[in-house]
Amino acid sequence: MPREERVPREEREEGAGASPGRAGAGDASGGVPAYVQADTYELTVNGTRRAVEDAWLGESLLFVLRERLGLSGSKNACEQGECGSCSVLLDGVVVCACLVLGVDAIGSRVETVEGLSAAGDVADIQAALVDAGGVQCGFCTPGFVVAVHDLLRRVPGADEMAVREALSGNLCRCTGYGRILEAVRDVQRSRAGSDGGHGAGA
Ligand code: FES
Ligand code: FES
Q1: Which residues line the pocket of ligand 1, CB cutoff 6 A?
Q2: Which residues line ligand 2 (CB under 6 A)?
Q3: How far is CA 119 from CA 20, 116, 143, in A?
Q4: What top-level class would CATH report for the domain 124-194?
Q5: What is the pLDDT of residues 83-131, one digit of tens each?
Q6: What does CATH list as the number for 3-116?
Q7: Domains 3-116 and 124-194 share a fold
């Protein structure tokens, strides 16, 4: 359902100007739920403090990243926590950004797919996915990159069952998954053989 339909505009404007804070934190004026308030706050995204200005406090982290901060790498596919295309790291834990409020990331570290490699570089996971043919429409790819990045930094030598389990929250409707698994194996081999591979530390 479009965001504009969920909360009437007049109600959002009525709540605007209240103190910054997390959604659900209460409302001193009474009657107006905290989630219709709008305000400016800061997030730490990919190591940089970013201002989110005059934002409705009910916006998802995914919306904030894409529409307010210009980080469109995280994709909006289901917006229901089902597909993993919006995966980001929140304090080092993979989450679906579509299910997290932007304001709930205040004070946390947010890492998006854009932050997984040095500016202009392609992380080794991304290169391996391309080389193995694990990218077709590409809509799922950023979520897989984040999930693989998270797994391999925790368990570099993860076996196939562990890889499948770690990627079970990421859906792909094009590749049949085999080439994605092949790409993960390629990254593992490359990192084991070269003590990092290009972009491995990202
Ligand atoms: S868009 Fe977030 S899980 Fe699908
Ligand atoms: S490449 Fe199209 S959904 Fe995965």
Answers
A1: 76-79, 81-86, 96, 98
A2: 135-140, 172-175
A3: 32, 9, 19
A4: mainly alpha
A5: 999 999 999 999 999 999 999 999 999 999 999 987 666 789 999 999 9
A6: 3.10.20.30
A7: no
Ligand number nearest CA of 180 is 2
pLDDT tens for residues 21-67? 333 334 444 444 555 577 899 999 999 999 999 899 899 999 999 99
Counting atoms of ligand 2 from 1, which one is nearest the CA of 173?
3
Residue identifier of the C-alpha nearest atom 4 of ligand 2: 172
